[in-house]
Amino acid sequence: MAGKIISKFFDIDGGNTIDVYERHGGYQSIRRVLKKMAPGQVTDEVLKSNLRGLGGAGFPAGRKWSFIPKDSPKPKFLVVNADESEPGTFKDRYIMDRYTHGLFEGIMIASYAIGANKAFIYIRGEYVRQAENLVEQIKCAYDRGYLGKRIFGTNFNLDLVVHRGAGAYICGEETALLESLEGKKGWPRMKPPFPAIEGAFKCPTIVNNVETIAYVPTILQEGGEWFSELGSERNGGLKLYGVSGHVKKPGVYELPMGTSLREIIYEHAGGLQDGRKLKAVVPGGSSAPVLTADEIDVKMDYDSLAKIGSMLGSAGVIVMDDTTDIVRALYVVTRFYHHESCGQCTPCREGTGWAERILKRILDGNGRSVDIDNLLNIAGNIMGNTICPLGDAAALPLKSYLTKFRADFEAAVSDRNGVGKVADEPVSLLN
Amino acid sequence: MVKVTIDGIEIEIPKGTTVIQAAEQAGIEIPRYCYHPGLSIVGVCRICLVEIERMPKLQVACYTPATEGMVVHTNTEQVLEARQAVMEFLLVNHPLDCPVCDQAGECWLQNFYMQHALHDSRMFENKVKKSKALQIGPNVMLDSERCILCSRCVRFCDEISKSNELGIFNRGDRAELQPYPGTELDNDYSGNTIDICPVGALTDRDFRFRTRVWYLSETESICPGCSTGCNINVHHNDQRTYKAGGSRVSRLKPRYNPDVNEWWMCDAGRYGFTHVDADSRILAPTRSIGEEQEMSWGEAASEIMTKLREVISVHGKESVGVILSPQMTNEDLFVARRFFRDGLGLKHIDFEVAPLTTGAKDDFLIKADKNPNTAGARLLGVGARQGSGMTVAEMLEAARKRKLRALYICHHDLANGFAVDVVEEALTAQDLVVFQGPNTNSTSALAHYVLPAAAFVEKTGSFTNYAERVQMIHTAVTPLGESKADWQIFRSLAKEAAISVPYFEAEDVFQALTAEVEAFSGLPYAGLAGQGIALRDGQALPESETVVA
Ligand SMILES: Cc1cc2nc3c(=O)[nH]c(=O)nc-3n(C[C@H](O)[C@H](O)[C@H](O)COP(=O)(O)O)c2cc1C
Ligand code: SF4
Ligand code: SF4
Q1: Per the confidence metrics, is the pTM higher than 0.80?
Q2: Does residue B308 fall inside a structural domain?
Q3: Which end of chain A has fewer CB atoms at under 10 Å, N or C?
Q4: ipTM, 2 decimals?
Q5: Strand (E) or helix (H) holding B253
C-alpha cells in the first residue's frame, strides 16, 4: 500500500508550523520548480499526474491550468477554494489545520505555473480557527521570505491573502465564490466565460480546491507519473476520504484513488456498530446520489462512481445503518439545499422549498400517496435546468432516496395517513 | 452573419445575436421574464429554455449566442415540459391574488400561464410570507409576494438610471427585493421599473386601484414634458371615467423608439399629465371684462377680431404683440404664422420665454428645455430671434409703456419667466389681452378674453424635438368642453378677418407646411406616425441653441 502524503502530517505535533514542515522536507519542491522548470513544464507534470480537481467536479487540474490565456496582458489569479460546506465533508479543514505550509507550497507552485502573482484562499466563514492559523502561518512564510518579492532569490513574486466567507454554502461554487471575493453577493455567474478566461476582477483565474493544491508539491517532487500510478485509471494519486455517520471510527483517511467503498467503511473506518446493518451510504458529500448496501463494492474514484449513477464529489462518505429514518434523512438534506439555494433561478429557489415542505408534511404524518411522485417530478424539473449545479445537488438526493428507498417513503405516507387533514385533490386553477 | 435553424425556419443573423433575438427575427416568441433587450442578461428565470441540437441540456435562449449551423427547437415536448415546470415553480409561492392585483390583464404570469402552462395546482403547502403593500419610493409600491425575483428592476437602477437603489436580499425563496437600507426608489426614472416588472410586484401609486387595465385604450403620442419628445402611449379610460375621479387619461407609458427614448421615459413626463383633467381646464370662451361671461366661439371670434382691428386701426400693426408657445404643435404654429404674420401683417411675434428657474436636465433623457416643440417653432420662424420683431421681454416692456396696446398670449404663464409685477403692469396697461390655452394660470387671470385650447391628448399634430425629429401626437380623447386645437382657434379668428386658412384636418395643415417651409419640405405625412422622421439625421442642436435661462 502506498504511504501517506498529506495525512502524514496529521499526526505530527506542530505539523502546521513552518519549521516542522521544513524539517520533513517541506519547501524543497518549490525551490526546484523555481530554479529548474518553466511554468509550462509544471503544468505538464500536473497533467501527467492525472490529478483531478478534488473539490467535487473532478476536472483534471492540469487541463484547467492550461486554459489560462498565454497572451493576456491582465494579471492572473489563483483562488483556493476552502469554503468546504458540503455536509459530510471535512477534509480541507484537516489540511489547513495540519498541512498548512504544504498548502502554501502548492499555492506557490500553482501560481508560478499559471503566472499568478497574487493568490487568495477563500475560506468558509465558520472556519474561524482555521482562518486564524492560515493568517498566522502566512505571516511566518512572509517573514522567511517565502512569500512576497523575489522568492528564493528568483524573479517570482507572490502575495497570498486569506478572504473569509460569510456563511453561505453557495460561495463554494466557484463563480459565486468569485463574486463574493469581489465583495458582491454570492450569486453564481452564467458560464461561459469560465474563470480561467474571466474570473476574479475580470482577470484569468484558476479556482482549485484546497486538497487539489495540497497534492501539487509532492507531484512536482516525485513526478507526475509516480503520482498517477498511485491511483486508478485517469484518477491519479491518493485522496482524502472523510467518513462520518454510523461507523466505529469516523475520520479522514488518505487512500489511493479507487479504493473500494466497502474497504473504506469496513477496514479503515472500523465497520458499523455491533448488531447494526448497513442501510445506505452517501459516497461523496450530501449531494451525491445515495447508494444501497448492495452497491458498496465500487471503486471510489470519479469515473467508477459516475458509472453507477452516483459521484465521488467531495468524497465525504456518510454511512447510515438500519436505524436511520430515510425519510428524515432526505428531509434534512433537502432542508439544507433549500436553506442554501441562492435564490437566483426559479427551479432551485422554488423547488427546494416546496420539496422540503412536502417532506416535512410527510414527517408530520400528513403524507399523501401522490407526494412521492410529486417529489420525483419536482426533482426532475430542477435537474439540469438551473444556472449552477446546486439545483442538481438538491435534486439528486431527492431522486435517489425516493427511488432506491421508495418502500420507506410509501410506508411513511400510508403509516401516517389520516393523522392530519389535507384535501385529497388540489383545486384546479381553471375551474 | 451566421445561419441558424429555429423550429425549421432558417434565418441569417449577425454574429453575436442570441437565440432569443434570432427567434424573434424568425417570428417565434420565446417566453421570457428576466430577459429585457435594454438590460444586461442574467438568465435566472429559466422560462426561455430551449433545445439545441448537440447540446446535452436545455439552454437558456436569452444568453446563448446563435452560432453557425445551430439547430434550435422551441416547441419540443422537453421544452414545453420545462417551461410548464418553471411556470409551476413561479406560482409555488405566488399569492394568486389576481382579483385584487393591478397588474391583472397585463401580467406575464397570467399570459404565459394561459399560453404555456395551464396546469392544475399541486401545491398543498403554506406559502412563504413576505412584505406587502410597501411604499418603496414616491411613485412605486412593492408587493414582495408577487415578485418573481427576475431582477429587471434592480438592473434598471444599476444600468439605466445608474442610481443603484435596489437589491435582492436574503437567499432562496426568502429572497426579497428591497431598496438598500436608508434609500428609497426615488430616481428620476423610477416609474420605468413598474413598466418592466413583468408581474404585479411593482405597481404605480398613481394608478393603483383606479382602473382595470382592460378598460383602457391606447393612443400613440409624444411626451410634451421636454424637448426630448419621448415616444409614449396615452392610456385612456373611455368607458368608465367615473372610476378614476373623472380623469380620462389614466397613465402614460413609454413607447419604444431606438432613436429617442428606447424603452424609457422620465417620471416628470410620466406623471406630468394631470393638467389634462384638472379643474383648471378652460371649458368655454370667456369674456372677463367686469363680470366673467361665457360666450360661443362665434361671439368670441367676432368680438376679439373687432377689438383687435380697432387697436390696429388706431395704433398700427406694431402695437400688437403675439406670444406663441413651444407647447404648440408645428401645425398650430404654422397656422398662427399664416394668420398673424401673413394675414394680419403683425411684426412682433415670439414664442420663447426663458424660465426664471432653469429646468433640470441630465445626460440621459431629461432636457432643460421643458417644451416639446422649441425646434419646430424656430424652424417655422415664429420667434423674435428668427424675425425682426420684439422678444417677449421687449413686448412686456413696450406694453408697460403702452407702446403695445394688445397682447395675444398662447399657453404661457408669463410669471414663470418674469416677475409678477412686471407681468401685471404690462398686461393691465393693455387695451386688449387675449389668452389662449388649455388651463387657467396667472396670465389668463389678467386677460380680457380667455379661449379654451385642446390639451395635447385631445389633438393631432406634430412636434419637432431637440434633435429635429418630427414626431406625431394623436387625438386620444375628445377635447374637453368647447376647447379645440390651437390652429382651429386661429382658423375661427381668421375667418372673421377674411383670411384664408383652408384646412380641415391637421394633415391639411401639415401638407401646406411642408410645401411652404423649407426645413420641412418633402416630409411624408404618412411616415410620421410611429417613430417619426429626423430632419437632420438625428443630429442634436447644440445645447447653446436651446432656450434655457
Ligand atoms: C453548490 C456548490 C458548492 C461547492 N462547494 C465547494 C467547496 O466548498 N469547496 C470546493 O473546493 N469546491 C466546491 N464546489 C466546486 C467548485 O465549484 C469548483 O468546481 C472547485 O472549487 C474547483 O476546484 P477543483 O477543480 O480543484 O475541484 C462547489 C460547487 C457547487 C456547485
Ligand atoms: S441553481 Fe440554485 S444556487 Fe445555483 S444559481 Fe440557481 S438558484 Fe442559485
Ligand atoms: S419587483 Fe418585478 S421587476 Fe423587480 S425583481 Fe420582482 S418581479 Fe422582477
Answers
A1: yes
A2: yes
A3: C
A4: 0.94
A5: strand B249-254
